[in-house]
Structure formats: C-alpha cells, structure tokens
Amino acid sequence: MTETLVSPGVPAEYQNIGRRVPKFDAVHKAAGTLKFVGDIRLPGMLEIKILRSPHPHAEVLSIDISKALAIPGVKGIITHEDSPAHAYGREFALPPEYMPRDNHVIQNKARYVGDVVAAVAATSAAAAARAVEAIEVRYRKLPAALDPFEAIKAGAPQIHDVVYWGDEADHLTGNILRTVKMSVGDVEAGFDEADVIVENTFTVPKQQQSPMERRCIVVDPTPDGRLEVWCTTQSIHGLRHNLARALGIPYSRINVHQSFLGGAFGARLDMNVDEPIAAMLALKTGQPVRLQLTREEDMMSTSRHPATVTLKSGVKKDGTLVAHQMTAHVDTGAYACSGEWVTKCMGGWFMSMYRVPHQDFVGHVIYTNTPPAAGFRGFGNPQANVPVESHMDILADKLGIDPVEMRLKNYIRSGDAYYAQGPNVVDYIKSCGVEEILTEGARRIGWGRRTEFAHQDRSTSKVLKGIGLGRAFHTSGCGQANEVSDILEYAGSVIKLNEDGTASLTTALVDMGTGNLMGHAQIVAEVLGLRAEDIIVTNTDTDSSPYDVVTHASRSTYVSGMVAKLCAEKVRDIVLEMAGRILDVDPSDLQLRAGSAHVVGAAGAGRETTSVTIEEIARTAQMRQWGTIMASESKRAVTTASHFTCKFVEVSVDTETGHITIDRVVAGSDVGQVINPVLVEGQIHGGAAQAFGYALLEELQVDRETGRTLNPDYLNYKIFTSRDACRDFEVFFAATHEDTGPFGAKGIGESANNDGASAVTNAVANALGVHIKDLPITPERVLRALGKI
C-alpha cells in the first residue's frame, strides 16, 4: 500500500502548482531515446583507459611507455611528465580563494590504490586496455596510513606535504587537513547545570552514491582551439571553471554542454581527475575522446565520508537539553574534495537540530591513503543525524520520557536562528511544520505500540518488532546576506515566448533524474498562464546560458526556481503591455490565465472583446515588429528556507538470522507548497531507500593492510533494490507556506535522506532493547547485540 496526501490548501486558481504533472523526459526514458553522455559517439572518437596504482602509497621512480605506444591504434599517452605542475581544486560551489587545492592531473606519487599513473587514448577500448597493460612502471612503495586514527598519530606516514588555499600554501605537519570548531554558550557550564549527562560514540560508514549511470566524459577539440565537453556533471559552469583552472587555459576555450544524468546524489558534485585527463588527451591527439569509467572505477572515485562521532549531552530531568558536545573524526581519503565543507556542515546540522543554549563542535578532517570521499546527498547531515537522533532516544529512555515529547520540547522553531551550511551561513526559520509532522506521524504509525514492543519477550521470540523515529532538517540552498562569501549561491534564467504561444526556458541547472526542470516548467507556466506542457526546457551549454552554481543543497526549486519565476514575471509584464496595446486597455486591467490575456474587473464591462490569446499576442508582436518577447534574470539568494522531515519506521528482527525487515514507513515532510507531488514523493521514496541502505547494508570496505577496496561492484556492495523496498509506505505533508520561496515552496531533496537511518536505528533499538551504535546494522551486529555470537 502506498498512500500519498497532497499538501492541503492548494489555491483553486493554480493551474499548475500542486498538480501531478508527469516529467517531460519520462516518455523519452521509457522509449530509450533520451541521450546520456555515454550514448555520444563522434567521428574519429578515441577511447581512454587509465593505468592506476596497485599501491596505496608509492612514488613513481620511472615509467616506460614505449611498448604501449607501439600497439596499433594507440594515439596518445599522458603521464605525470605531461601534467600541469600546479595544483587544482575540485569543488563547484566555492570561489577559488576558499577552495583547497591538493589535486594534480597526474603526479609521480600515488596516494591510494586506484590513483592515476597514466592514461591512454586509442582507436578502441580494447587497444587502450592493451596499452595500459604494456606500460612499465617502477615504484618505490611508501608506508601507508589507512586508518584515520592511525593517520593522526605522531610518526604516521605523511600523505600531503602542502595544500593550497587560494594562493596561500599550507605546509602540513601530520594528516589533519583542517580542524573545524563551532560553539555557542559555555558547554562546561551547561554540563554543570544538567541533571543527567550521557556520552556515546557512533561510527557511520563509507557509503557509495550508486548512481545507475557511470561517470563519462566526451571532449571534442575544435579547429579554433576550443574544447566542446559533455560530462556527467552536476554543474556545467562549475566544470568549465575548474577544468580551465586545472589545465591553465582561459574559460572561453571551454564550452560544457548540459546533459541529463542517470542519477548523481553528489557523486558528480565535484570535478574528478577524469575530466582534465580527457581534455589533455583531446588536445594532445587533436581528436575527440571518450572516457567512461568501469563500475569498479566509478565506485572508487567518490563516496560519503565515513566518520567516528562522540556525542555528549546534558539534560534536565524534565527533558530540557542544556548542553550538547560533538567531536567528529572525518575521513576524507587521499584528497580534500569536500572534506572540510562536509565537516563544517556536520557542525551546522548538529547545532541546529535542537534548542540547546550551550553547544560545542570539533571536527577533524583527516587524510588517509584510501579512495577520496566527496559530496553525498545530505552533505554531512546523515553523519550528524544518526548520532543526534539515536542520542535523543537514549536520553528519553533514561529519563522515562516519550521520544516524541522529548523532540517536541526541544526542537528549533519559527524565529530561531540556525546554521544553514556550516559556521558562516546563519539564517532564521520563517515557516515550520515540525510539530504537525511529528504528532501526525506518531498517530499514523500507531506510536503507542512502541511501549508494547519494549516489553516483548526477547528470550523466546523468533521475531522481534520495533518502532522508531528519526527527524531531520536541511536548508534550501546556501543563500546569505553577505555579497562576498565563501560559498556561491546565484542562478540565472532566460525565457523566450515563441510565435505559437509556447515559451522556451533556458537554465544551466542540471536535471539529475529527479525532474527538477519539470518543476521549473510548472512555475513558469503558472506565471504566464500557460500549461506546463507549453514550456520547452531547452538543452543548453555554458556559451549560451546564464550562470547557475550547481544542482545541490536542495536549491533547485527554492533558488533556481525562484529566479525562473522572477524571469517569467518580466515576460508576463511584456505580454500584458502588448495585450494592452491590442485590446486598448491598461495592462493593470489584464490577467493571464488559460493561455489568454483577459480583461478583468470593471474595465471589461460593455466591451465586445475581453481577451486575446497569448499566441495572438506573440504573432502580432512579430507582424508589427515589436520585437521578441523575452527576458533574463540573474539573482543571488539571500536567504535559505529550512525544510523538515520525520520518518516513523516499523521493523521486524529475526533473532535466529539477525535479518531486519522494514515493514512500514510513515514519512512526514514540511516542504512548504508542493509544486509537483509526483516529484516530491519520488524524492522521499528514493531518499528513504538510500537511508535504509546506509542503516542496514552499505559500506564500501577498504582492506586495512593492502589499501584495496574489497567490494567495488554490485555483486559485493549491496544496496536497497525494489524488492527490498517497503510496500507499506505512507507520505503526508505539513500545511506550511514559505513566503521567500516560489509560490511558497521549499526544498526536499537532501532532507528526504537525512532521517531514515536514524529512524531504522531507533526502531531496531526498540526491538532489541539495546542501541547498536555502529552502522550498518548487519546481521552479525544484531546477533552480537542479542548475545548469540
């Protein structure tokens, strides 16, 4: 059973907002006609294969490519000797001055098993693979730091000697990239005020984003010296910027084309090493090239940051939180990627969940000789949420207070300040449906049964039942009041009215498969009085589109959608002015609806003609040469909007096998006005599946002796599939309206993922009578908790 209730109170005059409109790419996907990057084939295109290090830490003493060059079909090989000497950064949302730069296209030192040593371009993938095998490399193996706690000990192998922040060189002593500190109040004084103090340590795993589409890049060098680029990226402008910096060439020499993605979830949030490798080989050979990673390479290229988190909390007897302290050790792998920002966000998410007067966060970002971690849906939020929400249940049980009541007593609410994205982005809650989703979710799941499950006979029962709760929040974008800041947040749109009365929308925002551009079409259609199917979302590139930062941070609707709305309002004003000329009325007496401009109010009394179609307006503008009806808008977001979610989960635990089944889910969400229920439901279901995998199954395992990734394929790395999904999944929405969002909307993408693992963890604890603090909760860990192994 799947029940979905649309947000109540959708205004009757809306023609598109709040309606179930199918994604415009759905038919093409079903028919197999939608083109992804991996489908691109260009005349004379070469295939690229990469030689990767078999050692976690090694210096390349010599490399001989002569035998490889002699293989028929090989057109070009690059090594560290061809690579630009300067370091580059990978993150799309940061200005260069704030971006850690520790990557080189290819270096003479490998820092993890799989690091790039050389790359080959050949007329076929088979020839390129043979050439890779023919390259002879002599390594000097170096001691490796494979465990974060070993890596920060005195005398541990040094992984990076220097990291650049803008033009400033940071010479490292040890393997801590950065230590992030945040605090409010006096946490020690807070602990002195507390009646009860509880401390626990949790570990959260290295989870792979697992998009269906493998990373792929196609680069076509043009005769005039430019590069045409197609890539599985979440930001076409961000990729152009970073690629230009990595290669040391002007931005204007690169044009990145917008492409649909077969999923991303943060795996395509940063530029990887593959894009500059492909560009270098295209320039070297003068031919178009294609690099598509194998599944193993793709899975090793990025992941969620694993972390060990110690949380200490002080609370009054009545359940009031007075002190919160978190210490996190975050493993960023061999390169910085998003490590510092994920850790900053962990601190922000931790300190913004509950009203606590005294809080302290310390996060250590640690280099190890393991595959690099990067952005993943939630961006540090799940790593903070699992400890916080597990801790809330532990505190509630210790005090004898209902966990729902514990949360209702302490949650942050309208008017409260919160950290939007780490320590430098602070905003205030303007709309909040937390109380509604908590109380209604508890009612729907039958929360009272939790007490019964807590007293079930665990010594004789073959199956134990449990109910758990997790709640979360996230921000809609990264907007802030400061014009100059350490994170970029602005978007642009262009809208053109066509002669048949349809409209074309140009935006650089990338659709990762979620249908976010369909939501934009509905917003534009609502403003212009058209149908969503009358809006053509154009396929664009960096040459033709205004800048948009990146599809991340749950900002697609709230930030980019708002800019599209502002742009559509400019077009609407032009259409009304022209309609006024045609109908000989003041534009203020006109309204666009159902494809026409209508005279409203007293101005229409006694008139023979009271409307003109938008198509007629566009055709008249052309015949009378009034010009193209079009507008552009580029705007910076100055606020975020916190969106809230909760999940109530019922589980069954087999006491003989340790297997956990998710029997029922009730998911409440405060997303403001729902633009398209189909898209929002998809986010909630998909986010839950990833979160449940995080809780129960997923961990990218690295051998602590050899540095090799043990399960870089779906035979050995298990994710939730449709067969694992819970059929009894109920979704409901809070009746809220966000005045700062387009038509009252907020984001949803990341918070749909943030609370699910916590809910499962707490449900299992209710069933077992003990909290398992290390994820994933495997059958072995269940049986160990039951004392059976």
Automatic annotation (TrEMBL):
Ranges of residues in domain Aldehyde oxidase/xanthine dehydrogenase a/b hammerhead: 31-143
Domain of life: Bacteria
Listed InterPro entries: Ald_Oxase/Xan_DH_a/b (IPR000674), Ald_Oxase/Xan_DH_a/b_sf (IPR036856), Ald_Oxase/xanthine_DH-like (IPR016208), AldOxase/xan_DH_MoCoBD1 (IPR008274), AldOxase/xan_DH_MoCoBD2 (IPR046867), AldOxase/xan_DH_Mopterin-bd_sf (IPR037165)
SUPFAM superfamilies the record matches: CO dehydrogenase molybdoprotein N-domain-like, Molybdenum cofactor-binding domain
Protein name: Xanthine dehydrogenase family protein molybdopterin-binding subunit
Organism: Kribbella yunnanensis
